[in-house]
Amino acid sequence: xxxxxxxxxxxxxxxxxxxxxxxxxxxxxxxxxxxxxxxxxxxxxxxxxxxxxxxxxxxxxxxxxxxxxxxxxxxxxxxxxxxxxxxxxxxxxxxxxxxxxxxxxxxxxxxxxxxxxxxxxxxxxxxxxxxxxxxxxxxxxxxxxxxxxxxxxxxxxxxxxxxxxxxxxxxxxxxxxxxxxxxxxxxxxxxxxxxxxxxxxxxxxxxxxxxxxxxxxxxxxxxxxxxxxxxxxxxxx
Length: 237
Ligand SMILES: Nc1ncnc2c1ncn2[C@@H]1O[C@H](COP(=O)(O)OP(=O)(O)OP(=O)(O)O)[C@@H](O)[C@H]1O
Ligand SMILES: [Mg+2]
What we know:
binds adenosine-5'-triphosphate; alpha/beta
């Protein structure tokens, strides 16, 4: 279980998150939705240890990880798929995937994990020796997710996996995310694609201007008039 307790994050003197609290259970699929600039990336980077918090705590599996060095997060079972994928474009798909399993514990299980990544994204099988740069956007997102899975995380953090992808590919991507979760990995997802995120997640939080402004069961959130109006472009009248 991940517990984010009242964290605040600044960029220099400028506050970006105020008093943000959320939880993600061990097998849960939780999303944080919100508009451009709401603070979603700041939040997920803070949870991944990539950005320090000014106040508040991060607890994972009962352990306080607030001040844990970012390279220790991997050992703690947390892996992030960052915004914009951040692949090594001049390296092959296989090399990118293997980078996710450089720690000794993960290296020992490299072959087995590669097999499960390829079972999840079969299209990558014939691309293993292609440069990451030569892949389509959707395939690159698969590599980014695959790289994170190679570490064998118990909690997967995903920053806008649908960004820039065609609608049909977005559907496949969310189906894969559901599959990862159903195989036992907790998922915390941040998204601007509110309808897909709410359809996919168990629970949801809405973030605006650095604060959580609503939370609930994802399916139930879709029926709330204010959410439908503000985020789904649907007027209930
Ligand atoms: N490196 C930075 N330095 C200063 N301010 C930043 C930095 N990164 C983000 N911000 C500011 O922090 C706020 C939150 O940004 P953040 O990127 O977390 O939002 P987001 O919800 O991920 O947006 P998007 O949907 O565009 O990805 C914004 O006002 C943004 O301008
Ligand atoms: Mg972002």
